[in-house]
Amino acid sequence: MVEEKVFFYTEYTDDVITSANQEYVLPKDYDYERKSFWKELAGVLVYGLAIIYTFFYANFYLGFRVYGKEKYKKERHRGIFVYGNHTQMIGDAFIPAWTLLGRRIYVLVSPANYGIPVIGKILPALGAIPIPQNLAMMKDFNKDVERKIQKKHPVVIYPEAHVWPYYTGIREFNASSFHYPVSLNAPVYVMTNTYQKRRFIKRPRLVSYIDGPFYPDTTKSPKEQRENLRETVLETLRMRAKNSNCEYIKYVCTKQITNE
Prior knowledge:
Blueprint: E1 6-9, H1 37-61, E2 65-67, E3 80-84, H2 91-99, E4 106-109, H3 119-126, E5 128-130, H4 135-150, E6 154-157, H5 179-184, E7 188-196, E8 205-214, H6 222-241, E9 250-253
Helix pairs in contact: 1-2, 1-3
């Protein structure tokens, strides 16, 4: 049973979960824009089905609750970035869509997810934006992120990068992913996943908190803006993470880590 699992790690960047094809490599001609009629139609249909699935998965499996989603209304007419802690293998792709119901979201993902049988094939239609594995693809990737923001879509980013299921702490991350809201002068929100006891079910309830919007400080240099946003997001995640009140999966560090 998953609740009996213990994960051992040495660094916060460890992959405690791997996909069926962890070394999957994106094709060099990967289509970030997806402009064809059939691809757009597939996106509409698959995304709609995903929302229906999320209703049952979130409410009946995860016991999902969210607080603060009304804060999104302040920037409902702009593209936004949503940063969260990466603690659900499936839920992290779908739960943000449920909190932003009525808006088409996109999620930055590792290409390793594309190696998952069946699911990997439909990720592009679901709104996944794979992080490029080489500099040659970076231009198209950056254009796609900018395109989503210009079209007023939310873009979800998990700066911890690696999924740690049901982890109740917050892992340290760098400022690199904050290049996007700084370069595009876009609002930032924080979605913190916490895990709270349920009365009759051992698997904890997923309770998310929405905070923001936070904005780049354009009076500072781009580097300072990125670092300031990183600190704001990190502090917000750590503050909200204190609402977790149970440990469903145990994480054991095999060496001393000083940046708790």
